[in-house]
Amino acid sequence: MRVSVRYMAQLRTAAGVAGEAIDLDGPCTASDLASDLATRHGDALRRLLLGADGQLSPGVLVFVGDVQVGQGENISLKDGDVVTLLSPVAGG
């Protein structure tokens, strides 16, 4: 199964790419994918994507297609899905 990942804002910088295609061996949720991406891209991305408990950080917005995945939702990804990861930036 192959999904496309798009990184936005700080996540793009941390991942070092704007997007990529990921081949998955089997069933995978958006949270599972985030853990896999953190392992692939190292500490800079891991610190933004995952909390101290190793789960997806509540500050990261995840979209599968145009639908936002709620925190704790276990949406199974399908072949061809586009997953967008966004770390909102605030400031003034």
Describe this structure in words.
The structure is a single chain. The chain has 92 residues and is of the alpha+beta class. The protein has a single domain, classed as Roll (Ubiquitin-like (UB roll)), CATH 3.10.20. It is built from 3 helices and 5 strands; from the N terminus they run βαβααβββ. The chain has a 5-stranded mixed sheet with strand order 2-1-5-3-4. A hairpin with a 2-residue loop joins β3 and β4. α2 packs antiparallel against α3. It is globular, with a radius of gyration of 12 Å. It starts with a strand and ends in a 5-residue tail after the last strand. The mean pLDDT is 91.
Envelope shape:
globular
Provide the β-strand percentage band.
25-35%
Listing every helix as H and every strand as E from the N terminus to the C terminus, the arrangement reads EHEHHEEE
Radius of gyration: 12 Å
Largest sheet: 5 strands, mixed
Order of adjacent strands in the largest pleated sheet: 2-1-5-3-4
Low-confidence stretches: none
Number of strands: 5
- Overall structural domain count: 1
Mean pLDDT: 91
Q: Considering the protein shown, what is the CATH homologous superfamily?
A: Beta-grasp domain
Helix content: 25-40%
Structural class of the helices, strands and pairings? alpha+beta
